[in-house]
What we know:
Layout: H1 3-36, H2 42-69, H3 77-110, H4 125-142, H5 146-149, E1 150-152, E2 163-165, E3 168-170, H6 175-219, H7 228-260, H8 265-289
Antiparallel strand pairs: 1-3, 2-3
Helix pairs in contact: 1-2, 1-8, 2-3, 2-4, 2-8, 3-4, 3-6, 3-7, 6-7, 7-8
Amino acid sequence: MNWNNIIQTIVFLSLTGPGIVGNILMFVRLVYTSAFRTEKKPVNLILIHLAFSNLIILCSTGIRDIATVFYFRNFLGDIGCKAVVYLARMARGLSICTTCLLSTVQAVTISPRTTIWKKAKPQTSRQVLTYVFLFWILNILTSSNLLYYITAGSGMNRSGVTGYIGHCYMLPSKHTVKWLFLLLMAVRDLVFQSLMGWSSGYISFHLYKHHKRVLYLHSCRFVNTFSPEIRAAQSVVILMSCFLFFYWADFIFSLYTGSMVSHDSIILNTKTCLVLGYAVLSPFILMNRDVPVAKS
């Protein structure tokens, strides 16, 4: 193994190791809280699903990258390539949908009780499960083309491939199929990111009003305490900023690698870090700010 692979392995393990541990801790903590407390908070189930989606991203991407770094060319095979690439893509979509649901629920939670949006907020865990089920159906269908067009790189003519993911390759597809699935992904991301943008803007506006109120209370020498809803809202805004940064940075790199069919290791490693970044950081942001205390 050369120095480039050693550095790549260190960087990769320094990302996936803490990310997997952080998401497992958040997952176990929330499952324990939901199982042994009489009060069931729908937001806890949303966070459990987010942690689970992040774990799928980290583990599937990790298996693929380990095979790449250590030159295990025949380690995955066709079935393994299809599985890890499909799971990574599907879990990424689940992460987008779940993050959107979290931000929307938080925006509705801090909204005035008289607003019509209160009726749209899930009141029970069963309602959250309905959203989660729909997310799985949507992303299973959106990523289903990968089960046919992804293949292992051994024993094939690579001149006609349209994508390169580790030792897995994307076979050429009909333009109709290609643009249909690209359109589905684009519509999904546009809808859910638009909802994220609305909810994040609303939360930021509410936090600004709260900040002005705090300044007024301080001027009147009142003691201020941050409510659980405000602390959770601040966490969600930080989480949305983190998500948007990694999403659009990854999108730009994906356009570059997709158009240039570049196999440059630096570009691919940077893209891997961007793919993993949100899944690694999100549990630590949520646990540090203690989002589950927000009332649901």
